[in-house]
Amino acid sequence: EVQLVESGGGLVQPGGSLRLSCSASGFTFSSYWMHWVRQVPGKGLVWVSRINNDGASTSYADSVKGRFTISRDNAKNTLYLQMNSLRPDDTAVYYCAREGAEMGDYWGQGTLVTVSS
Amino acid sequence: QSVLTQPPSVSAAPGQKVTISCSGSSSNIGNNYVAWYQQLPGTAPKLLIYDNNKRPSGIPDRFSGSKSGTSATLGITGLQTGDEADYYCGTWDTSLSPFWVFGGGTKLTVL
User: Fold this and answer.
1) B46-71: per-residue pLDDT in tens?
2) CA atoms within 13 A of residue A13's CA, in its CB half-sphere
């Protein structure tokens, strides 16, 4: 069974940093591109970042470019999102999602990041 | 402001049919497959339709998808109270770098 489990969310002050993790199981993690998508509670889905299967290629939304870094450790079946210089408008639930032949065929349960003083 | 445009809400009675529209452009819907997601309250999005009109295993055939030009439509027949959820369309956008774009979501109310 495919499972994606996010962790690392929490309360952080503006300007602070946080690293999210997404632990994958039930599939060959190294064969799939992976994405981070965020959702402000009560609002819509917004794509944040993606990484290809071997980690050599990454892309970011303009709103996080230069502040967030996506990475992966295929030996540990884990996806990461390093978030620096956090702002209040980064407050959201962060989901990791798999891109197979289909867009977003599996999603994690999400982890809440709250940026507030 | 979402890249794809969906109506904020739709409603219908149990047993009825409803459609949800999703409008985009040539850089996204016009040249890429569309997916639809169901998000029940307090849960993660779940893939409902992929490649415009295909259903993953376990998704009932009450759910259907179609695409024409730069627009897509989700159809749900035989509405049930358990279908009350937010529905999102999504696709790739190739205008700069292939990445995902979504609609703003449509809240389905089963009256």
Assistant:
1) 999 999 999 999 999 999 999 999 99
2) 1
Structure tokens at B42: 């307090």
Q: How far is the alpha carbon of A116 from chain B, nearest alpha carbon, in Å?
A: 22
Closest among A6, A15, A3 to A79, alpha carbons compared:
A6
User: Alpha-carbon distance B85 to A36, whole Å?
Assistant: 22
Q: What is the pLDDT of residues B1-33, one digit of tens each?
A: 888 999 999 999 999 999 999 999 999 999 999
A21, A109 contact by CB (below 8 A): no
Contacts of A108 (CB under 8 A, 6+ apart): A4, A5, A6, A22, A95, A96, A97, B44
Decide the pairing of beta strands B9-12 and B106-110: parallel
pLDDT tier at B97, thresholds 50, 70, 90? low
Inter-residue contact B28 to B91 (CB < 8 Å): yes
B40 touching A (Cβ < 8 Å)? no
CA distance A107 to A45: 12
Mind listing the pLDDT tens digit for each residue in A27-79? 999 999 999 999 999 999 999 999 999 999 999 999 999 999 999 999 999 99
Cα distances (angstroms) measured from residue B48 to each of A8, A25, A104, B33, B51 = 28, 22, 10, 13, 11
Note whether B2 contacts A: Cβ–Cβ < 8 A. Answer: yes
Q: Which of A37, A45, A93 to mutate to test the interface with B (most CBs of B within 10 A)?
A: A45
